[in-house]
Amino acid sequence: MNKHHDPSGQADEQQITLRGPAELADALPYMMGFQPTDSIVLVALHGTSGRFGGRLRLGIPLSPREWSPVADQLVECLIEGSERRGSRPDGIVVFLCQDPGEGETSRRVMERLRPLAQRLRTACGTFDVPVHEALCISEGRFWSYCCPDSRCCPPEGSALALPGTSVMAAAAAYAGIQVRGSLRQMEGRLAPMTTPAAVGQERALDTAGAALVPRILDGAGREEVAAETLALARRLMTRIAETPRTGSWAETDAADDRLITHDEAAAVILGLQDRDTRDRAAEWMEGPDADPALRLWQALARRCVGPYCEHAAAPLTLAGWVAWSSGDEPGARVALGRALRVDPEYVFARLLHQACNEGLDPETLRSCLRQARGSRESSGTSKAEGRPHRPRPRRVGPRVGRRSLPPAGAGPAKSPAGNRGRGRSRSGQRGTRSGR
User: Fold this and answer.
1) Alpha-carbon torsion, ordered 207, 213, 219, 222, to 10 deg
2) Which strands form 39-46's sheet, in the order they lie side by side?
3) Fewer Cβ neighbours under 10 Å: the N or C end of the chain?
4) Can you tell me the distance from the alpha carbon of 164 to that of 142, in angstroms, rounded to the nearest whole number?
């Protein structure tokens, strides 16, 4: 089996030939930019050589009852997305990635997920697109659901190549492609803090909400809060920029967290719940602004603790946007996927996630934001000063009775169902949010 992966996107410049299930399994982290965990991954193949095309990842649903509709929706999304980019897939490769639970073996994981693999193969067949390979990867071993030859695919599974020793690893190193740990580790960088400091952060959010709500409900006060939020965010970005990245990501994240007080974090988090303020903050997406802005949004996402977890949708979406704008598609998908987990109805995250997954060029949005900033700067007035203010309902405090986050891997990195049929009423909750 010959498959080609082209990190640069131009197959005539560089081709890496992968032969058989072992090399496909070893290539997965380099295709995704991270080690998928608790994930369904579909990869489109094009042409007689099986050139890799679009790819789609979703957390494995906890309930087997969800496997059939999820399989149908995932396959449909991948095929339709490929067609929009100009080419229907000639085949698909399926990966199921999950480590064993307590008291479970990796082989047991493979057997438990076999019906899901079969359902995905059936869904592909419905669209007349063959599955060239379906692999289960669990705890450093892999199995093929398609290959019956025990000589290359033994019942006990085969060990993955040692990190950095495969042909794909060599090609990725040459091309400058990095694998940034597992999906669980990447999501962990964006998860709410669980240290004792979380108590103080929640208290600061309560205090800031009590002070900001009356001002936001007032027309003039809303614009003042927006200006204060953006000014404070800019100061924090300057502070972060003066502290360059050092050591590991964990060390950099810890250093960034120490640079921001609880009160500062609370003020910016709550201010970003306003849609206009968030859109103004999205203008910091390139040049010297990009890195400190990304680090700030990541740090603020970690500060959305306790009942304020859903407030993380705004900083997570901004983090995803800056990552995508900077060319970091894996990081963008992780941040936007988590934003949709904390608030599946967050429109900005849904639109960005769809655009990122469809391989669109972020320059279109960058141009719009540059134009908006240029118009505002040339007029010398704020957006609100150029037109009458129309107050919108908003929510600054936490929602009452809101569900907690699902376990890692259970929520979608892409919502293939498009949240169809969601008509959940929000009556009885403490207002609504405009940060969408």
Assistant:
1) 50
2) 17-19, 2-4, 51-59, 39-46, 91-97, 131-138, 141-144, 158-159
3) N
4) 17
- Give every residue of the chain whose pLDDT is below 50, as ranges: 1-13, 382-394, 400-435
Rounded to whole angstroms, the Cα distance separating 297 from 9 reads 29
* Helix or strand run (H / E) with residue 224: helix 219-241
Q: Which of 347, 305, 302, 356 is nearest to 329 (CA)?
A: 356
Report d(CA 116, CA 137) in Å as an integer: 14
Q: What is the pLDDT of residue 178?
A: 62
What does the alpha-carbon distance between residue 304 and residue 345 come to, in Å, rounded to a whole number? 18
> C-alpha dihedral over 126, 58, 69, 358, to 10 degrees?
-50
Q: Under 8 Å CB-to-CB from 33, ≥6 apart: which residues?
A: 177, 178, 179, 180, 328, 329, 330, 331
From the list 39, 135, 123, 137, the residue with the least C-alpha distance to 89 is 123
pLDDT of residue 332: 92
Angstrom distance (rounded) from CA 425 to CA 416: 22
pTM: 0.68
Q: Do residues 292 and 240 lie in contact, with contact meaning Cβ atoms separated by under 8 Å?
A: yes
* 106-126 vs 67-84: helix crossing angle, rounded to 10: 50
* Tokens matching residue 288: 């010297």
**How many Cα atoms are found within 13 Å in the side-chain-facing hemisphere of 9?**
2
Quote the CA–CA distance of 273 and 429 in Å, as a whole number. 16
83 is written with which tokens? Answer: 């067609």
CA distances from 48 to 5, 51, 90 (A): 14, 8, 8
Beta bridge partners of 136: 96, 143
Helix/strand/coil for 127: coil
**Token couple for 77:** 């999304």
